[in-house]
């Protein structure tokens, strides 16, 4: 998105760098943003609702503001305490427009009292020139993985809300499948057919996805499930919980398998089904790649988002 704007000669002010300390991050974010107000700004975009602590600084400005929700963390935020709820209301009321990554998130915001007319769902897109089919054998060599194994990949944070413990239990029921976990977080107790690789760099993630036979996202809660789109863009089929925006991606059996959340039995059956159906995996992967190219390519979605920016600043 930033690159697209800069190509259109739109100057982008990046107001913050991440800090390991949440307090320092919040403080620096606010200070940096206040300083940026002194610059020649046409429009503001705030990512993630917890960072709406910048909103009080924006109350003095009449410049357009876009809020963007990437996941359902922003929906949990208002319920933590009364202060958060007040800040949430202030943020969404101050915003000229709100972007959600899925229709499901839009519905959730409407249920929280946000006006439907000011919300536009625009999914997080995929760079299909990066996430693309590659030679599976070469990709497996990059991670020293068995070229003959059936590999089930989980890519994301090692966190209970991501259904990690459900997947570990399903692994116990599928001993002939190799389970690869790529993502940051503490390693839980697991059977011998599970392997935790730790955090995977963005450059290596497409390679790891292409090394897999299928990807699983057994989340209990999810905004959209960008990892599903990235996997499908690589031609790798997916299994996902029927939560959040996941059913917007997996619309039928040709694009993947949807399972009930927190259901180890169905999760295990879906894994076994893909394990035993090589031709189906290949067919679903090819269909998934075509689906992402048509509906979730970065360039197409960035144009849609940029049109909202330009409309708000009357360009």
TrEMBL record:
It comes from the Archaea. Residues 138-290 form the Glycosyl transferase family domain. Residues 28-129 form the Glycosyltransferase subfamily 4-like N-terminal domain. It comes from Methanomicrobium antiquum. GO terms for molecular function: glycosyltransferase activity. This is Glycosyltransferase family 4 protein. CDD domains: GT4_PimA-like. InterPro entries: Glyco_trans_1, Glyco_trans_4-like_N, Glycosyltransferase_grp1. Pfam families: Glyco_transf_4, Glycos_transf_1. Coiled coil: none annotated.
């Amino acid at each position: 998105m930033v690159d697209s704007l800069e190509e259109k000669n739109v100057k982008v002010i990046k107001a913050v760098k991440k800090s390991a300390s949440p307090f320092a991050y919040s403080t620096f974010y606010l200070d940096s943003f206040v300083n940026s107000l002194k610059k020649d700004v046409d429009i503001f975009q705030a990512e993630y609702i917890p960072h709406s602590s910048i909103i009080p600084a924006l109350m003095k400005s009449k410049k357009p503001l876009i809020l963007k929700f990437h996941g359902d963390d922003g929906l949990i935020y208002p319920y933590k305490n009364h202060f958060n709820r007040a800040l949430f209301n202030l943020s969404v009321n101050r915003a000229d427009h709100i972007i959600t990554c899925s229709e499901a998130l839009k519905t959730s915001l409407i249920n929280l009292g946000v006006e439907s007319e000011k919300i536009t769902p625009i999914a997080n897109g995929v760079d299909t020139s990066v996430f693309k089919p590659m030679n599976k054998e070469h990709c497996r060599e990059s991670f020293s993985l068995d070229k003959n194994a059936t590999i089930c990949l989980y890519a994301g944070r090692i966190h209970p809300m991501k259904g990690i413990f459900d997947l570990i239990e399903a692994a116990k029921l599928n001993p002939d499948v190799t389970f690869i976990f790529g993502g940051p977080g503490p390693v839980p107790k697991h059977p011998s057919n599970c392997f935790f690789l730790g955090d995977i760099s963005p450059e290596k993630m497409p390679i790891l996805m292409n090394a897999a036979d299928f990807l699983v996202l057994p989340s209990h809660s999810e905004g959209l499930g960008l990892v599903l789109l990235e996997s499908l863009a690589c031609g790798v089929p997916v299994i996902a919980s029927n939560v959040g925006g996941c059913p917007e991606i997996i619309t039928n059996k040709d694009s993947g398998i949807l399972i009930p959340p927190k259901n180890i039995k169905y999760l295990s059956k879906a894994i076994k089904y893909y394990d035993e159906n090589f031709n189906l995996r290949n067919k679903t992967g090819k269909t998934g790649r075509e689906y992402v190219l048509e509906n979730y390519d970065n360039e197409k979605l960035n144009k849609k988002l940029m049109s909202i920016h330009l409309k708000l600043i009357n360009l």
